[in-house]
Every structure is written in structure tokens, then in C-alpha cells.
Design brief:
CATH topology of the largest domain: Butyryl-CoA Dehydrogenase, subunit A, domain 3
Strand content: 15-25%
Strand order of the largest sheet: 1-4-5-8
Number of strands: 10
Structural class: alpha+beta
Shape: globular
Radius of gyration: 21 Å
Number of domains: 3
Order of helices and strands: HHHHHEEEEEEEEHEEHHHHHH
Distance between the termini: 41 Å
Largest sheet: 4 strands, mixed
CATH architecture of the largest domain: Up-down Bundle
Number of helices: 12
Bound molecules: flavin-adenine dinucleotide
Length: 382
């Protein structure tokens, strides 16, 4: 039987092998504790940076490690296999904060921030959502008003991953409110800027190893040079970056689903009821067979989108399909995994209950399932 991912290159297989070793030694052992304490293991950033993982997909001259979107999808799946929360913190740093700097910031900002960020010495966050603006970016109320050679930011941001630990934020603010989504710009805000503060750390149901906060900007002045990308167009331009975020989200979902599936396969072989392993009962066997098929199908969609992006082909529809399918599949698989574990999966010390709490967020972030269906329908001409 061929390996399910026989199309990976030797280098990608080696990347996958090395990541699996790293995750089993460095992430899996701390995942439950970080989840319980709602604490991000910030020391991981320089370790991941030192091994070149944070630099995947970024050019070597800016401190990156090169590599492709497919490499990046492999990284996301493996990190999420170890901990959805830890993976989320890395993702926001790499795929949103650093990717926005790389794609749109001036050469000076790139040189100042990217090498250290890709070494994991500075942590980034992406500050988009607000109390009144989630799916609807056009409702963003945080304002950035030009004043000489500065911009003055006022407003607040909600649900910001890495908010409590970030050294810098990419803030989406309105520079032309009447234009709604066409009047949004991106700004790099350093943590120590006067007028910026972390208002509250937020506690959540899942991905608890990632830290989240509400952020406030009160007459927070940033140099005009901190504008990232085009004035009024920064957010629209960044949607291309967010396309890759959808590929990453699908890979995260696959990682969590795979962890739940593997645990269930092992459990089904070991747990004996009515004188036989429960994996001998057809209902359980079929359920686990379905999990294996669904994970491989989801991975193929994810990798197809990544390969299309690597080849410079249109990949927006592919990324939406991958994200929609993988995230909904993950939720279904994790629910079945909990079911087949019986009461043991329901206990606080079981990783299954953590996967159960972690999986739902992938359907919400990076554009909820409904938004993905809308985008796919639009691409289909509806
Ligand atoms: C764990 C976690 C981490 C996060 N990290 C960050 C972060 O780092 N930075 C950041 O900026 N934000 C972050 N967010 C917030 C995230 O961006 C929002 O949750 C997301 O944009 C959805 O917005 P909302 O939660 O306000 O939901 P809403 O937009 O209020 O949606 C609620 C429901 O309405 C549905 N809905 C909305 N519009 C439509 C429509 N047009 N058609 C059909 N259905 C619709 C949605 O699908 C959803 O089911 C995070 C959220 C979570 C849970």
C-alpha cells in the first residue's frame, strides 16, 4: 500500500519526521498543563525560530527559511497534532502578523521586525476583531487619523490571540469610515507605545494554551512609517494573505482530527467489553474507518490548495473548500472519538475532552463556515 502522502518530496518527508519528533518531545508533554493553566509556553517561540520553523515560507534574506505553502501546511498539521492552542499562537504570529509585514510593509519595517520575529525573539498578534465587527469587517470602528507625520489610533479590539504576550501588533483600523471595508488600513503598533494597553485577558472554552486579550488604543500615536501596505487598502490587500490562513486552518483541523483518530484507534484495540476489544464491533470499526477516510480526504483538499498557491495558480476557492471541509470534518471526528472513548474520554485528564473543546474554533476563525460557503457559492457563479 502506498503512503497516503506519497506525493511529498524527500525534503517534505524529512520536515514531517523532524516535526513529529519535536512535537512529541517538546509540545505533547506540556499540552495538557498549558491548557489547564491557560498559559502560552513563550519559550517555544525561540526554540521553533532556532530550528527555522517560524521562518518557513519567508525569504532567507529576511531571516526566513524559504520553503513552500505545502511545507507550511505540514508544519500546521504537526503543531496542532500536539496542541491546538500552541499551534494557534504560532499561526497568528507567522501567518497573520509576520506575513502581513512581509507582504506589505516597507523595507525598513521588514528589516527592523522580521528577522527577530522569525527567530522567535519577538511575538506578533493580529488585531482585527472588535465587539461590533467579527464576520463583518466593514463595521470596524477603531479609527486611525493622520496628524502630521503620525497616525492617532483610538478604539478597542476583542478576542486577540497573543494579545497578552505580543511585542507587536498588526492593527486593522479605519482611515476612511464612510468607505467601510474599502477604508481599512493596517498599522504596526509596538507593545510599549503610549496609549496602548492590554485591557483584559480573556478565558475561553478551548485552545486554552493560546492567550487572548481585549486591547485598547487611546490616542495611541504611531509614526506614519508604521502604516503597513496601502492607505485605505491594507485590509483588502491582506485578504490574499488570509487565503493562506484558510489553508493553515484546514491543516490545524486535520492535526487535531488525526490526534483524536489515533487515540481512538488505540483505545478501540485495548478496551474490552463483552469479551472482545470494542474495535471488533461493527459500529465502532465503521466509525473508525470513516475517520481515516475523512482525514485523508481533508488533507488532500488542504494540500491541493497549498500546491495551487505554490504554483501561483488561483486558489481562493480551493482554500475555502479545504477550510470548510476540514474544520467541519474535525468537529465530527472529535465528537465520534469522544463517543467511542465512553466515560474515559469525558474525564478532565483525557486528551479527548481537550480536542473536543479545541476543535470548534476552527469552524469560526478565518471566516466561519457560512462565510466559506458564501465564497464558494460566489465562485460557482451564484
Ligand atoms: C479562539 C479564538 C481566537 C481568535 N483570535 C483572533 C485574533 O487573533 N485576531 C482577531 O482579530 N480575531 C480573533 N478572533 C475573533 C475572530 O476573528 C471572530 O470570532 C470571527 O471573525 C467571527 O466573528 P464573531 O465571533 O464576532 O462572529 P459573528 O460575525 O458575530 O458571527 C456569528 C454567527 O453568525 C454567522 N454569520 C455572520 N455573518 C454571516 C453571513 N453573512 N451569512 C451567514 N452567517 C453569518 C457566523 O457564521 C456565525 O455563525 C478569535 C476568535 C476565537 C474564538
Amino acid at each position: 500500500m502506498a503512503e497516503p502522502d506519497f506525493y511529498l518530496s524527500d525534503e517534505q518527508r524529512e520536515l514531517q519526521r523532524a516535526l513529529r519528533e519535536f512535537v512529541s518531545k517538546e509540545i505533547a508533554p506540556i499540552a495538557a498543563e498549558c491548557d489547564r493553566q491557560e498559559r502560552y509556553p513563550v519559550d517555544l517561540f525561540p526554540r521553533l525560530g532556532g530550528l527555522g520553523y517560524l521562518g518557513l515560507g519567508f525569504p532567507e534574506e529576511l531571516g526566513g527559511s524559504g520553503g513552500s505553502n505545502l511545507d507550511y501546511a505540514i508544519l500546521c498539521e504537526e503543531l496542532a497534532y500536539g496542541s491546538g492552542g500552541i499551534a494557534l499562537g504560532v499561526y497568528v504570529h507567522m501567518a497573520l502578523a509576520c506575513a502581513a509585514i512581509h507582504a506589505f510593509a516597507s523595507e525598513e519595517l521588514q528589516k527592523e521586525w522580521l528577522p527577530a520575529a522569525l527567530r522567535g525573539e519577538r511575538i506578533g498578534a493580529w488585531a482585527f476583531a472588535e465587539a461590533g465587527a467579527g464576520s463583518d469587517a466593514g463595521s470596524i470602528a477603531t479609527r486611525a487619523v493622520a496628524d502630521g507625520d503620525e497616525y492617532v489610533l483610538d478604539g478597542s479590539k476583542l478576542f486577540i490571540t497573543n494579545g497578552p504576550i505580543a511585542d507587536f501588533l498588526i492593527v486593522v483600523a479605519s482611515t476612511a469610515p464612510e468607505q467601510r471595508i474599502k477604508g481599512l488600513s493596517l498599522f504596526l503598533v509596538e507593545r510599549d507605545r503610549p496609549g496602548f494597553k492590554v485591557a483584559t485577558s480573556l478565558s475561553k472554552l478551548g485552545v486554552r494554551a493560546s492567550e487572548m486579550a481585549e486591547l485598547v488604543f487611546e490616542s495611541c500615536r504611531v509614526p506614519a512609517a508604521n502604516l503597513v501596505g496601502r492607505l485605505h487598502r491594507g485590509f483588502l490587500d491582506s485578504l490574499a494573505t488570509l487565503t493562506l490562513g484558510r489553508i493553515a486552518s484546514s491543516a490545524f483541523a486535520i492535526g487535531v482530527a488525526r490526534a483524536a483518530y489515533e487515540a481512538t484507534l488505540a483505545h478501540a484495540g485495548a478496551r474490552v467489553q463483552f469479551g472482545q476489544p470494542i474495535g471488533g464491533f461493527q459500529a465502532v470499526r465503521f466509525g473508525i474507518a470513516d475517520m481515516a477516510v475523512q482525514i485523508e480526504a481533508a488533507r488532500l483538499l488542504c494540500h491541493r490548495a497549498a500546491i495551487a498557491a505554490d504554483r501561483g495558480l488561483p486558489h481562493s476557492r480551493e482554500a475555502s473548500m479545504a477550510k470548510l471541509h476540514a474544520t467541519e470534518t474535525c468537529t465530527r471526528i472529535v465528537e465520534r472519538a469522544l463517543h467511542f472513548h465512553g466515560a474515559s474520554g469525558f474525564m478532565s485528564d483525557s486528551p479527548i475532552q481537550r480536542y473536543y473543546r479545541d476543535c470548534k474554533v476552527f469552524e469560526l476563525g478565518e471566516g466561519s463556515s457560512e462565510l466559506q460557503r458564501n465564497m464558494i457559492a460566489r465562485e460557482l457563479g451564484l
